[in-house]
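Onboarding guide, step 5: your first structure request.
Type a short instruction followed by the sequence, for example:

Predict the 3D structure of this protein.
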Amino acid sequence: MAALLLAGCGASPAPAPVAEEGAPKPVDEGVVMRDVEMFLFDAGVTGEQRKPALSIRAKQFVQEDDKVWRFEQAQAIARQDNAEAEDIVFDAAQGSLREEESAYMDGGVKATIGTMTIDMDNVTWGPEGDAGASTARSDSPVHLLDPAMDLYAEQFRLYPDARQFSLIDVRGRFDFPQAEPETAAGGETATTEGVSS
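The system replies with structure tokens like these:
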């Protein structure tokens, strides 16, 4: 994955605070950027028309080393190619971005996909396996809530390209879709008996 910076405000070195005599020397935090958006692209995607797999807008990005940025109060969006598919939106208190690789969010993460919300302690976005396609994954407990489900799981995987997710050690409630009554010839409604649990 490759990262690209879109400047919202200019990057500038963090101002060095004045240290009192005898006080420990402040740590140089490097480059600080505020109100900017960073992008991650799927590996192997090239050309001018490529779209980011994930965009992250944060209150502040602080460079930790050559390719690692720490961020605070962020919203990350995985935009779907299919116009009918809902974008995946992550809200997180903090996290880090490794350019050309992955993003990690924690501090209480809420993902929203249409009417579904997913609450988790942390989530990692990046390639998984040989395919190189991005996934969102958490090995901490998650809670999925939707009008048709109320599920808890110990581990979670989301595959945006396939529009699928996988849950490990899951418990909770899932409502199967109700069958629509069939209309018989002549306008009469035919009913079918369901199985109740």
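Each response can be followed by summary notes, for example: Residues 1-19, 23-27, 189-197 have pLDDT under 50 and may be disordered.
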